[in-house]
Design goal:
The chain is an alpha/beta fold and 590 residues long. It is built from 29 helices and 14 strands. Among the domains are: 206 residues, Rossmann fold (3-Layer(aba) Sandwich); 144 residues, no CATH class.
Length: 590
């Protein structure tokens, strides 16, 4: 009884091929097997016969090219009988990779879609391109001739295969890395065949008295979640609390009716832009907007010049009586028109009065140049208040505070900051110096990080450019007590780390232990717990790094419990190898 291995693909770059260099199959078998016989007489395959583990016979068929393989239709029968399949290509020879991807991979997918035959995808070599190697899926710097890790991983996912990166064909990578995985699959296939065929000879039974240890999958990583957005409720709370108001509405009897914020009103309506003098009438091409502003409101411009809230008189008494409901509708993003309509009809006994007020609201929210309110409603349904306010991020428009960060000045709006950040709400509404200061210095944060932080407050979205910037933003969000932004940073960092290949993790200068220290110091419990699991799941990589010794005893104990592969598995594997080595027919591999 033997184990059949099929090796497909060419692992040496045809442009730089060294005729004396051994290929993957020959290098592995000459060092890890006994009684190797090589037969080159087959028209398609190079045939290898050898013995591993003392008693296990293996037959390996190797084909380097699809063109050769496709000439002989009987060659597909040999692939169909395979117990283990190895697909191999050179990272510096895209043609060899495409040979695998476009021809061999679909064939294997078709033949083994209902079976559990293991497949190993081996990427061999190091990219020869000038400059640092890049495996970013969006980067095309290496794609002229080199094959990126991302492409290899995608191919492995397509086949449900194991992906290995072998930088060189040498003892370390082939014997320990490739060989360990292949031998595991050989043993599993041999055990499966033994079960089917029943009892074997006594000496074989002795060899198999101790079962090969089973390598379990790594533990599932903790799932980090983001809280749902509170953007609209934050602005609703801003309206209810009446903090940092710079607009006061009065009825015609000069009785105060409601308070609001110019930046929010201007973000949803050109009428308010015109009313507060932020847009001149000459820039308004729609006469309906001009008529609405003049018919509904009159304001005192002197208040703005003196720094007081703007006093606005609402000329329409019916509109004024519903002003509170209308402002709540605007602060929710002016999206739920049906709810406003229902509320006003319930509030007013005469349906004509409700229709009159609704028409006034339509005029306020009118899109310039569009006379079809049905299409306006469609646009309002898609309106996002975070996008509307985001237009005023880092602009001087209605700005009432300026931050000094390093050598940069950043204009902002107190109302938005107060609504979205509790620390800034306390800072601007308490007895602090910042409450009355126009210019506020910021220390301990880089200008780029603070800009991304402010952009989140305005737009409810953040876009860090690197893991380092992500951790800086996490520290900033903890400093200003913005928990949802902290969760977004955690998810960004974990996604970036998970998308790194094993080679990138081994070669990167980024210290995951340093990330863990920062996460714990800044109360990011979710991220610190995730990083411990991540280090444990990649134990063989991180245990060789210098900063691994900086972990505390408690952290080391946690990692030892959850490490993969586990220490128990390695002990069982060592015991199994000793047992196999002690048999009468000693194993040359072990």
């Amino acid at each position: 009884m033997s184990v059949c291995i099929v090796l497909l693909g060419k692992e040496r770059n045809s442009l730089y091929e060294d005729q004396e260099e051994e290929n993957l199959a020959s290098f592995y078998l000459r060092r890890r097997a006994a009684g190797l016989l090589v037969d080159d007489n087959h028209p398609v395959f190079t045939l290898y016969r050898a013995t591993v583990f003392g008693t296990v016979q293996i037959v390996a068929h190797e084909c380097l090219s699809w063109d050769v393989f496709d000439r002989d239709k009987c060659s597909q029968n040999i692939v169909g009988e395979a117990d283990v399949i190895v697909l191999k290509y050179s990272v510096n020879d895209r043609a060899s990779f495409l040979d695998i991807k476009d021809h061999f991979a679909p064939l294997i997918k078709q033949k083994f879609q209902n079976s559990d035959v293991p497949v190993i995808v081996s990427a061999i070599g190091t990219a020869n391109n000038d400059g640092p190697f890049c495996t970013c899926p969006l980067c095309s710097s290496d794609r002229g001739t080199s094959v990126t890790s991302s492409e290899g991983i995608q191919l492995a996912k397509y086949l449900g295969a194991t992906f290995l990166e072998l930088q060189e064909i040498n003892d370390f990578f082939v014997r320990n890395y490739f060989g360990g995985m292949l031998e595991y699959f050989i043993l599993e296939s041999f055990k499966k065949k033994s079960t089917v065929k029943g009892k074997k000879k006594k000496k074989h039974d002795k060899c198999l008295m101790i079962k090969a240890p089973k390598l379990d999958l790594p533990e599932q990583m903790p799932v980090l979640k983001e809280d749902p957005s509170q953007y609209e409720s934050d602005l609703q709370s801003l309206l209810v609390r009446s903090q940092c108001v710079d607009v006061i509405f009065y009825n015609t009897n000069l009785e105060q009716m409601s308070e609001a914020h110019r930046i929010v009103l201007c973000s949803v309506s050109c009428v308010f832009m015109l009313l507060f003098g932020e847009k001149p009438a000459s820039d308004i091409d729609d006469p309906a907007i001009l008529r609405t502003a003049r018919a509904l409101f009159s304001e005192c411009r002197e208040d703005m010049a003196l720094g007081y809230p703007v006093r606005v008189i609402v000329k329409d008494s019916l509109f004024c009586s519903c002003l509170s409901d209308i402002l709540h509708f605007i602060y929710s993003g002016a999206r739920n028109w049906g709810l406003l309509e229902q509320c006003l009809k319930k509030k007013m006994s005469d349906p004509r009065d409700a229709s009159h007020v609704l028409h006034r609201v339509q005029c306020i929210l009118k899109v310039p140049g569009n006379d079809d309110f049905a299409s306006d409603l469609n646009l309002l349904g898609k309106l996002n208040l975070s996008n509307s306010l985001g237009r005023f991020f880092n602009t001087n428009f209605l700005a009432d505070v300026i931050f000094h960060v390093q050598d940069v000045t950043i204009p902002a709006h107190r109302a938005v900051l107060l609504a979205r950040c509790e620390v800034m709400a306390a800072m601007f509404s308490g007895s602090y110096v910042e409450a009355k200061s126009l210019r506020i210095p910021v220390y301990g944060i880089s200008k780029d990080t603070f800009l991304i932080f402010l952009e989140y407050l305005y737009t409810d979205a953040c876009h860090p450019e690197s893991i380092q910037q992500g951790i800086s933003l996490l520290i900033c969000s903890e400093m200003y007590q913005v928990p949802r932004l902290q969760q977004m940073c955690e998810c960004y960092i974990t996604n970036q780390l998970q998308n790194m290949s094993s080679r990138e993790l081994a070669e990167t200068s980024l210290s995951v232990v340093h990330l863990l220290r920062n996460a714990k110091f800044h109360n990011s419990d979710g991220l610190s717990n995730w990083l411990l699991y991540f280090i444990a799941s990649n134990y063989l990589i991180f245990s060789r790094k210098r900063d691994f010794q900086d972990l505390s005893d408690e952290e080391r104990a946690f990692i030892d419990i959850h490490r993969w592969p586990s220490s128990v598995y390695l002990k069982q594997l060592a015991e199994y190898r000793r047992h196999m080595h002690s048999q009468k027919h000693r194993c040359a591999v072990m």
